[in-house]
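Notes to self, DUF11 domain-containing protein:
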Amino acid sequence: MTSKLTYMGVIGLAALSSAAATPAFAAGTTAGTTITNTATVDYQVGGVAQGQQSASNNFTVDRKINLLVEEVGTVTTSVVPGQANAVTTFQLTNSSNEVLDFALVATQITGGTAAHGGTDAFNANNIRIYRDNTVTGTIGSWDVGDTLLTGYVDELVVDTAIRLFVVADIPTTAAVPAVVNGAVAGVTLRATAREGGLAGTQGAAITETTGANTGGKDTVFADIAGVAGDIARDGSHSDNDDYTVQTATLAVAKSSRVISDPFNNTTNPKLIPGAVVEYCIAVGNSGGAAATSVAINDAVPGQLTFVPGSILLGGTYTGTVPSGTCDFNGTAGGSYTAPNVSGTIASIAAGAISTLVFRATVN
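result:
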């Protein structure tokens, strides 16, 4: 950049400009710093030393506005319908050479491909932005000790990176559009540099200096382009992250078979009074997450009498629900309180099938 020069001294010598001997940081010398150096000339006349002559130069370091917003991690945030406080994580770095405030805006993309693939299909609710509290709580992870921000980061020190959390609530499956397994909601976090210097108050907007170099502290935007709509050198930066619904999708099938009757026993039995019938309730999970605490209930018809001790849980199923075949097996469990047979399967993994089996006698 063109120096802001002030010349002093009585000799017509150009001063030699050189950088001050200060430590090198990413952001560089602090904006507004005055850099001064002085050249001296000593000489003699007729062998007699004469008075030293000198010339000085000084200039003011201009302000470079640079920042970076980055998604933390390389994978989507898995969520379930109706989940509160779903978290996506970002990092904001002040690479400027001055302490600044940063205005923050969290928005949702509209359609198109999300950061980690998939098409944006729904919007999250109640979006908030938190700053990681590095004094209390879990550093790097969102918790109740983190600071809810009111639209900006206050007085962010030069060469400092902070963790920011975009926290939202996921709609239930009843929402429109439907929040189904695999549905994606993309979010964008954008930060814009604002004037710093007054704690507790968001600083004024910053304007880049146009035209020739001035004698004061000029401003140059040095940020790179962010995500769509965020161009380079505009005093802001942004990045995307997303939520992906990973939930259980259950299908249920019920089948029965005759085990025996009083006359044919187990050879080609028929469904006559006294016959034993075995029921199978199969639950298949075609979703992307495990279904837990799966409670199955079945009311035994009045024309049947439940066979005590016949309930089996966690059995296998050949094929897919509902077109496959129950294997009528499992581990003893469940309970019977007339007229209901019930049992709880602790977990049915994504892509898995589990069953409840019981027997009854035809009255």
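- The mean pLDDT is 91.
- The CA atoms of residues 149 and 205 lie 18 Å apart.
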